[in-house]
Amino acid sequence: NSHDKRGHGTMVVGEGVHFAKLTESAAADIIAMKGRCKTRTLADRYGVSLDTVRLIWKGGTWRHLNPSIQS
Predict the structure, then answer these.
(1) Which of 21, 27, 33, 63 qualifies as a FRET site for 12, CA 20 to 30 Å off?
(2) Residue 61: pLDDT band by 50, 70, 90 thresholds?
């Protein structure tokens, strides 16, 4: 299960996911810009949807890059 995969380090995350559109660097930039940049601006800059930016901010995706989100 997912908990075991995390514990064993075998869970695929970030750029390792075959359909990832962002790099870890881009996702980290989006996280860092929360509250300092509009959602639309970031979505346009990185070629993703508004929902993608919001999911990153909420920890729905790229959670491993955001220390303020509890696993």
Answers:
(1) 33
(2) confident
| Joined tokens for residue 43 | 């979505």
What's the pTM? Answer: 0.71
Distance between CA atoms of residues 53 and 42, nearest Å: 7
Residue bearing tokens 């929360």: 34
Give the integer Cα–Cα distance in Å for 32 and 30.
Answer: 5
45: tokens are 């800059």
Whether 56 contacts 30, CB under 8 Å: yes
Tokens, residue 50: 């508004």
Say which residue, 18 or 26, is predicted with more confidence: 26
